[in-house]
Amino acid sequence: MNTVSVRAPARLHLGFLDLNASQGRKFGSIGLAIDSHYTEISISKAKENRIHGAQLSEETQARLEKIRQRFYQALGQNIPPDQQQTLIEVKQQIPEHAGLGSGTQLALTLGTALASFHHLSIDTPTLAQKLGRGKRSGIGVATFDQGGFIVDGGLKPDQTVPPLLMHQSYPDDWRIVLIMDPAHQGIHGKNESTAFKTLPIFPLENSRTICHLTLMQMLPALIERDIDEFGQAITDIQTLVGDHFAAAQGGRYTSQIVARCLEQAQDLGHKGIAQSSWGPTGCVFVESDAHAQQLINALHNTTLAQPSNSRQPMFITARCDNHGAIVETLR
């Protein structure tokens, strides 16, 4: 048999529309695909099941094996056992628990590779539902399929994957400055589930404000390519969402070193200030590569002035990935 390779971009999650289903639908999300990190997995026939990849953690290996088993139980139950023996090779991986959607992309990348390897036609929402992804946000599912900038419609009580409301290509010249804290992880797993259960009710007025900012400021600014209006809407949405989650994550932002950088960026006049998901990755939306480099230089000079024993953030300039996952069959 041939080898199938699937490569999917990381995503930024920029906020929820309604955390409490005040109008019947819960969550609803804003986000986009980015080109700074990818998960890439190849599948080929093997005599026994194997998982291979440089520097794979035990957690990731266990997760891959669980995804593989769930795929064959839910979608590939008619495939003979002797044809289920595969080599799973992880060639690239999105950093885990950094707010970049690693879990969803890992599941969808492996699931899509297995489906393609066995010549099964399965759409991404179905794959996500069967593999247990998209339970809160549809951003990772939609960016896997299409890339670009996404708004999803949240979940009705009987839904498992939210509907896509808007997909828009992101301006090619705009950039996102990522501020990463490699020594810190965002809330995940049981702690994440507990946080959603124990956080106070999100005020209906705040939800209405976020929906209005999304529909009447952020999206028109994106279409009209107005980075200042777009960025201000992102910052205002993030302020409402971040302050609500502060009790669970220790402040508006999860990482203090990322928080300092984001505050400095705002002091320098930048308007698009955000944390992706639970962090710790922060992001600043800017209008060009030159503006991104200027900001990185300023932030880098400030962090160099910190005590030598303090953690240093990483700065990366990213573009939007406007294409989504790429599936290739290699002979």
TrEMBL record:
<dbReference type="InterPro" id="IPR014721">
    <property type="entry name" value="Ribsml_uS5_D2-typ_fold_subgr"/>
</dbReference>
<feature type="domain" description="GHMP kinase N-terminal">
    <location>
        <begin position="76"/>
        <end position="144"/>
    </location>
</feature>
<dbReference type="GO" id="GO:0016301">
    <property type="term" value="F:kinase activity"/>
</dbReference>
<feature type="domain" description="GHMP kinase C-terminal">
    <location>
        <begin position="218"/>
        <end position="300"/>
    </location>
</feature>
<keyword id="KW-0418">Kinase</keyword>
<dbReference type="InterPro" id="IPR020568">
    <property type="entry name" value="Ribosomal_Su5_D2-typ_SF"/>
</dbReference>
<dbReference type="InterPro" id="IPR006204">
    <property type="entry name" value="GHMP_kinase_N_dom"/>
</dbReference>
<dbReference type="InterPro" id="IPR013750">
    <property type="entry name" value="GHMP_kinase_C_dom"/>
</dbReference>
<dbReference type="InterPro" id="IPR004422">
    <property type="entry name" value="RFAP_synthase"/>
</dbReference>
<keyword id="KW-0808">Transferase</keyword>
<dbReference type="Pfam" id="PF00288">
    <property type="entry name" value="GHMP_kinases_N"/>
</dbReference>
<protein>
    <submittedName>
        <fullName>Beta-ribofuranosylaminobenzene 5'-phosphate synthase family</fullName>
    </submittedName>
</protein>
<dbReference type="Pfam" id="PF08544">
    <property type="entry name" value="GHMP_kinases_C"/>
</dbReference>
<dbReference type="GO" id="GO:0005524">
    <property type="term" value="F:ATP binding"/>
</dbReference>
